[in-house]
Specification:
With about 170 residues, the chain is mainly alpha-helical. The protein has three domains: about 80 residues, Zinc/RING finger domain, C3HC4 (zinc finger) (Herpes Virus-1), CATH 3.30.40.10; about 30 residues, no CATH class; about 30 residues, no CATH class. It is built from seven helices and five strands. Strands 2-1-3 form a three-stranded antiparallel sheet. A two-stranded antiparallel ribbon has the order 4-5. A hairpin with a 6-residue loop joins β4 and β5. The longest helix is centred in the C-terminal third of the chain and has 13 residues. The radius of gyration is 19 Å and the shape is flat.
Length: about 170
């Protein structure tokens, strides 16, 4: 019990937030080499979008870890015991329930409401009128927050992840 309290005391409120989506962690996953923690879905999305290293420090991430990141169960258990304030209504909520609270918090919805509409995707054209395409001849799309051009499905997945975590 004393060891558990000592471990819990080593965490700060910031440790319960994902560095990718900036929200309370959902199903925390931890990198083995650098021990950084992300939402499992954020980590897997970063890996799927061409990442081969830690999204935070560019540390080594193994192929096995990219496919199936280690679950940070110890942190998830600590999140079940500690509370934080909702960023909008200041209500005290256990960290592991914070995202559920956001779904029903009127102030949070007014401030950060998730748009259910994905903007119409436009295939950009170059000066010659040719559509941007991949090597396979399929059209590609550009999202302002991603450097690479994405296939239609990858762009939809990317936008869905952003909308989910808002």
């Amino acid at each position: 019990m004393a060891e558990e309290l000592s471990t819990a005391a080593s965490y700060t409120k910031g440790d319960f937030y994902c560095p990718v989506c900036q929200e309370v962690l959902k199903t925390p996953a931890q990198t083995a080499a650098c021990q950084h923690i992300f939402c499992r879905k954020c980590f897997q999305t970063a890996m799927r979008e061409g990442g081969i290293c830690c999204p935070l420090c560019c540390g080594n991430v193994t192929r096995k870890e990219r496919a199936c990141p280690e679950w940070a169960l110890d942190l998830e258990n600590i999140m079940r015991k500690f509370s934080g304030s909702c960023r909008c209504c200041a209500k005290q909520i256990k960290f592991y329930r914070m995202r559920h609270h956001y779904e029903s918090c009127k102030k949070y919805q007014d401030e950060y409401g998730v748009s259910s509409i994905i903007p119409n995707l436009q295939i950009s054209q170059d000066s010659g009128g040719n559509k941007n395409t991949s090597a396979s001849g399929h059209p590609t799309f550009k999202c302002p927050c991603v450097k690479n051009r994405l296939s239609r499905q990858r762009l939809l997945d990317h936008v869905a992840v952003i909308a989910y975590f808002r």
